[in-house]
Every structure is written in C-alpha cells, then in structure tokens.
Amino acid sequence: MEKKRKISVRKVLQLLLTVVVAVCCLVAMISASSIEGDMPLKSLPVVHIKNDRKYQFIEQKEIMNLAVYNRGIDILHTPVAKLDVHGIEKAIKSDPWVADAQVFVDVDRVMHMYVTQRVPVARLFTQDGSSYYLDSTLHAMPLSDNYTYYTSVVTNAPDINSDSAGMVLKTKIVKLVRTLQADKFWNAQISQVIIDSNGTFEFIPVLGNQRIRFGDTTNTAEKLANLVVFYKKVLNRIGWDKYEVLDVRFNNQVVASPSLPYAGPKDLAVRKMNWISSIEMTEAQKLKEDSLRKQQKIVEKANAVVIKKINKVVPVAAAVPKQIVTAEKQKSDSKNTKKSEVKKAELHKNTSNPNIKPSNKIPSTKPKQVVKEEKKQSKPDSKGKPAIKKTDSKHKEDKKEKSKTTPKDKPKDKPKTNKKEDTKKTKDKKTEANKDKTTEKKPAAAKYTYPQ
Fold this sequence. Notes:
By secondary structure, the protein is an alpha/beta fold. It has helices at about 10-35, 60-70, 85-95, 165-180, 185-190, 220-240, 270, 275-350, 370-375, 390-405, 420-440; strands at about 45-50, 100-105, 110-115, 120-125, 130-135, 140, 150-155, 190-195, 200-205, 210-215, 245, 255-260. α2 (about 60-70) packs across α3 (about 85-95).
C-alpha cells in the first residue's frame, strides 16, 4: 500500500497571492497606459539631425512639414494613442536626402525624431546636361536648394537605370571615387572623371594638360602607383606639358604620347618616319633656341649695365675738363697780366734812359718750348730737309743781341725818381717772386734789346 501525499495549504496560498498580484499590476499598467494614451503631447516634437553642422541638406522645418503639417495632424491636441508613429517615420524617409529616421514618444509625452542625412560621394553630370548626387549606398539624390556640396565630379555619365547593369556602373563609380578621395595627392590632383562610351574611365588632372586613360577599375591601386612613379621620374625632369595622353590600362606600363606640332598632311614619308627621332630633333631644336635666348638676355643685361655705368661716368668726365679749362684760363690770364706788368716796368726803365732809342720791331713773346714745337711741325722741303721759318731766324738774332748786351753794359746814369715809387716797385717785385715760387716753372720772358 502506497502512502498518500499531503497537500500543503501554505504553498497553495503563495501561488494564489502571486497570481493576484501579477493580475493587479497588469490591470494597473493597462489602465495607466490607457489614461496616458488619451492625453496629448506636452510640447512639439524634438528633431535631431545627424551631421547638421557639416551638411545642411535638411532643415527642421522641412521634417516637420513632411511628418506633421503636410499630413494635417494636430500634434498638440490629438491623443498619444492615436498618433501614427510608423507613418511619421515613413513620411520622413520619403525625403531623398534622409538615410534613416526613428520616431518615438518618451514617458514624459515628448516625441523625438532622429534623422540621418545622406552624404554624397560624387556628383554626376549626364550627357543631357542634368546633374545629381550619388551616395555610398548607390542612391541618387537631386540637387538641394539650400546647400551645395563640393565633391568629385564625374562627367559624360549615361542614363543609369535601376537594373543590374546600372547598379554595376554605379558601384564602379563609387569605388573609383572613394579610392581617389582616400589619397590626399589624388584627391587634389584629379579634377574630373570622364566615362567613355565603353564604360571605362579617363582622368583630367589639375597639373598638366594631358588626359589619363585609366580604363576599368581593376588593379586601381597598382595603376595609381605607376602614375606616381611616372610623375616623379619623368614629368619632373622633362616637363608636365610634354605629353598629351598617359595610358595606364596595360599591366605595369605607362604609355605616354607626346604633344608634337602639326607637320602638314600625312603622306607615306611622314608615316614611315621614326617618331622617336622626330621627338629628339624637336627637343634639340627647342634646347638650342632656349640657349640662344638665354645668351641674348645675358648680353642685353651686360650692355644695359655698361650703358648705365657710361651714363653715370660721362657727365662727371665732361664736367672735369671744363673745370680744368677754366683753371688753365685763369692761370694763363694771370701769367699774361704778370708779363704785361714786367714789360711795362722794363719799358719804363728803358724810356727813362735817353741814350737808348726804341726800335720799331715787335719781338716775339712766345716761349722756347712753343718755338721748338713749331720747328717740329714745320713741313720738309722738296729735298726732305725741314723748312726754316723766319721766326726762327729772328729768334736767333735776338739771342745774339742778348749775349752782346749784359747787365754791365747798361748805362750807369739813372734818372732821378721818387723814393715812394721805388719802394712800391720793390714790393711788387717781391710779391711777384713769391708767387712765381708757388706756381709752376714758367718759360723765361723774352728780353727786349734795342739797336745801338
């Protein structure tokens, strides 16, 4: 016989109490929520926009218009239970510039709207001339009236549909643009990306006038690395404008086509010509022309410097002879005045002697040096001997007469003169002697003799 189990009344009472308490709590919560649901919001909804400082595509007024005012909802007087939160979220997400939206009401009966903006990756210009933005999720966005975002430009874009081919082209564009934006150098160097008819890409750089044929997006990093090496080792030495096209489509190669001038019509001779030799010839000619221009500039600069120096020196040199001439004139005038005074004094002495008669001859006042120079300048005769002038003969006669007449032969009888006049004459002679010592040596004045 099995023993009967005893049922504890205590456990049964505990279970009953817990069930009653749980039911009461549920009833209280339901009643409280129903009461709060019947009440409206305390204030207007609060809008939170992510990245609103960097990008200003969306404003709070636009979100309120989309979520509340355009739908005709009286947000302050409708009960909370009757508000369609999911409908408000869908209305906000309908904006093409909104990536995500979340709407809820907290315990204090305040509605919060969290909105995330779309960030464009590239701006596409179609063949028709229209343009739109493309973000990282391959979503197309129209231009905003409030804000213009500066990003990479992609031109000659075809009409991209939402099919598989269109999505592939969009992924290629986004991938290529994001790799260019990740590198600081290429982000600053590439100003425009062009889409060809084959769906390949070309770049237009900021530095240089060449076009870069990039091809497909395969091996993007390797192609960009090869271009960097070409820039460093070739374009930095030759010049950034030597080539028109740079082709990077091939594996580990950079094919550069030079910018040659037009050489006339393309005939057979031109087609057979080696383009490498033509490039070398053109570069050699350019180097020669550049060297000649540099030499001409150097010569012109040197001539200009010499002319400036001459212009500075000439006025000074021109002024110096004038000063010298004036000084020489003053000296000659002073000499002439002294000679005239000496002649007057001698004439006065000779006239005071009655035994000496004046002669009608006028002796030459030229110094000995001048006479010698005139002899040298005299022309020779027909036999080759120099011609003797009359002035030389006169000069010789004067010398003979001087030798005959000495100070001893002068008459002893002197006329009586005043003492005052004699003292004045002696003083004048002393001053003249002192002046002659200071000045240069002068040729001796010709002494006058009178026939006996």
